[in-house]
Amino acid sequence: SLKCGIVGLPNVGKSTLFNALTRAGIEAANYPFCTIEPNVGIVEVPDPRLDALSKIVNPQKVQPAIVEFVDIAGLVAGASKGEGLGNQFLANIRETDAIVNVVRCFDDDNVVHVAGKVDPVADIETIVTELALADLATVEKAIQRDGKKAKSGDKEAMRLVALLEKVRAHLDQGLPARSLGLDEDDVALLKPICLLTIKPAMYVANVADDGFENNPYLDHLKALGDKEGAPVVALCAAIESEIVELDDADKAEFLSEMGLEEPGLNRLIRAGYKLLGLQTYFTAGVKEVRAWTIHVGDTAPQAAGVIHTDFERGFIRAQTIAFDDFVACGGEAKAKEAGKMRSEGKEYVVKDGDVMNFLFNV
Ligand code: GDP
């Protein structure tokens, strides 16, 4: 399954945040198919649509989607040269599918900043530089390996080397490969070399409890995020670690006192899920209302395959009701009466929130 790697310089609140995520996370016992390692947090994706469906269907069970976060320690300046836990850090981050950069946006004289002062944009530069340097080394090796083939006239190799040279020039300026605006074909060509800076990335601004507004650090980070098209989630890790310890009643009271609608973790989890290119469709039966995870762009048979490979192999068609129609009509039967149930074939690209039934041959 796809995972978000959580990275950041030391002392930015990464562990505090990750601990909150694991405390909010699922119990391994409920998910026997997952082996949960200490640096992995598996969390349910908060989705109010599940409540709306449950009100209508009254199921015995509700099953949200889940998403994985991995705590990746050891990012320091020099990591790309093996400083600190450098090599382990790079190996761990290579295994993730998206990068969540935690950045310090709070002042606290009691918490040392590794670079001497709080400066989120400079911190991000440090991180990107390390990752770009690691990618440069990877790209150099690939150019050497494929260069000989390219010289001997191998068309594939020539195309790859030309692309690698373009990427190298970009990385040389300290820029991440993702900002090169590569098309799908180029991205596919680069896939085997596992670049770090091509992975989608987002920022978590760890702010003080009163730091959601009038916070220049946060403003700078948001400006950077806008420029890069990278999502920015602001939260206070210290508050999040308190919230996860509360029971539901106390939680609601605490959130309303803080003027928050929901825990910041919820926003982080949803943003991570989206960053991974994931989306949800639903099945809504009396036994179970369930959110299923698919990739944006998946077809109906691929979506069916998430439930069971037989569903994909024997796929005939899908009966589909858009979430809004399902709720507005008050359930499947009435949606069908109102002509809101569509019959979709193999080519259908599933939309986020579709409520689906699959017909298949066994
Ligand atoms: P890491 O090195 O990035 O994993 O950072 P930690 O989570 O260990 O936090 C480093 C220090 O910052 C600890 O003393 C935390 O208590 C403190 N810290 C973490 N989050 C916050 C926060 O939101 N506000 C304040 N004031 N301190 C925090």
From TrEMBL:
Residue stretches making up the TGS domain: 277-360
PROSITE patterns found in the cross-reference section: G_OBG, TGS
Protein name: Ribosome-binding ATPase YchF
Keywords: ATP-binding, Magnesium, Metal-binding, Nucleotide-binding
Domain called OBG-type G: residue spans: 2-255
InterPro entries per the UniProt record, alphabetical: ATPase_YchF/OLA1, Beta-grasp_dom_sf, G_OBG, GTP-bd, P-loop_NTPase, TGS, TGS-like, TGS-like_dom_sf
Family that this chain belongs to: Belongs to the TRAFAC class OBG-HflX-like GTPase superfamily. OBG GTPase family. YchF/OLA1 subfamily.
